Each structure stands twice: as structure tokens, then as C-alpha cells.
Amino acid sequence: MNTIKMKTEVANCLTTVQLKNLFNNNTLLLRLPEFFDPFSCATLSQKIHQRMPLGFYENAPKIGRIGKAFYETISNPDSHDEYFQNSSQWIENLRKCCFPYISPIDALRVMLDDLWPKGSTVASLDGRRMFVGLARYFTSESSAEPHQDIIQRDAPGTDLSAKVQRQIAFNVYLTTPEYGGEIEIWDWIATQEDFYRFKDSRTDFAYAFDRTLIPEADLLIKPNTGDLILFNSNNVHAVTPSSDDRLSISCFIGYCGDDSPLVLWS
């Protein structure tokens, strides 16, 4: 059997063993179909578009987002302060927008509290509470180039980067395009040296690897509306161009040891 296929899994619910397999990279990707039902997805998507302001990544201007990713604040002190000043309000905005339905992030936190001995909590960085619950919006033909999400690179020398040993990405898909919008995953945790060696030279893609310099992805998965998908974000990953709108709610889940709470941030 193909070893990559063995490292992917489809399940009806999330278990502690599955979480540990993701953290340890024994599982490349886990899909929970219909984590949210179609009616809830349509309702949440409509309310989010109507009530929450859309912006675009400062470091990837073709990708829309509601809220702000911590990654964007790395080299911008003003953006860094804005992120922490607004983090609690952004969390509450998503919660209010989803009412009377539970927000995907609150659903995740309840699920993790049931699964993990020490439960879960919103991450703090040097005493400041982080944001969790980024809405990512891909319009027609927008995409994400091959990249990694690693807190040690995003926040080097901080208490959070010292504490988090591994991290996985959480995504719930509220709308998906008919064509495109697939997740590409490489069974490859690239080093910092690899990143600089294969880095994309284009200004708008400074976060990414140059596709022409790296192998093809090992895994291509098309999310369906309502799916929950988890994968180890240390692996190189990307999103292919979409034929239509693609909206997801996302965050990272950090592992700090079996006797510590899981920490969440976006």
C-alpha cells in the first residue's frame, strides 16, 4: 500500500490517538466529513460576509482574511500591537456572528477539552492573549503557494515558541468551489536552510517556496463544504487556485507536552 495513503485518514470523530498521530506526523492529514451540516455552513458563511470586514494578508495580498494572522505582524510593530489589542474582540465578533450557532472555534475547544487531559486554552505570547479563529477567503483564481507554518520561525525567542513542541492546522470549510481549492501537502518538514535555498523570489510570495525548485506534492485533497481537516502545519503545504469562493475558519493547535493544555492561535 502507498505509504502516503496510509498517512491519511477519514473519521467520524476526533480521538486523542488521532491527535497524537498528527502531532507526531504519523498521520499526514485527517478529515472529518460534515463536521458542520450544509445549512449551518450556508448560514454562517452568509452572516460572516455580511457582518465582518474583509481584509487581505499583508504578506500575501491575494488571499482574503477576516481578523489577522499573527504571521503578518512579524516585521511590523504597528500591526503587532493591533493584533494583540484586537485579539479578544475578534474572538467575540466571530462568536456573535455565529450566534445562535456555535462558532467552529468554540466547537473545537469543547471537543479538545473532552479529549485532552489538560484541555485547551487560547495561547498567550509573552503575557499577551492571542487571536484564534481566522476566517480565510480565497476568491476565484487565488491560491496559497507552498509554505510552512512554524511558530518557532514566526515568534523566535518567545515563551510560546519555547513551549510549543509541535503544531497542527485546523480548518473548517464553510464554502468550497466546484473546481480547485485543493490542499497540497508534502511529506517533508523543510529546514530553515531548505527554505532559504528554495525560497520564492517574487515579492508577493516571500512566504513561499518556489514550486519550480521543489518536488510535486505527495498529497492532493479537495475539501468539501462542512469538512474539518487537520494536518501537521510543519509540513510544506499549499492551496491550488479556486474556481469560486472558498471560505474556511482556521487556527493552529499547539502541543506543549502530555501534561500541558493544548494552545490555540491564528
TrEMBL record:
Domain Fe2OG dioxygenase: 128-255
The keyword Cytoplasm belongs to this UniProt entry's keyword annotation: no
Pfam families xref list: 2OG-FeII_Oxy_3
Superkingdom of the organism of origin: Bacteria
InterPro entries to which the protein is assigned, alphabetical: Oxoglu/Fe-dep_dioxygenase_dom (IPR005123), Pro_4_hyd_alph_FE2OG_OXY (IPR044862)
Statement: the UniProt record of this protein carries the keyword Oxidoreductase: yes
Keywords from the UniProt entry: Iron, Metal-binding, Oxidoreductase
Protein family according to the UniProt entry: Belongs to the iron/ascorbate-dependent oxidoreductase family.
Protein name: 2OG-Fe(II) oxygenase
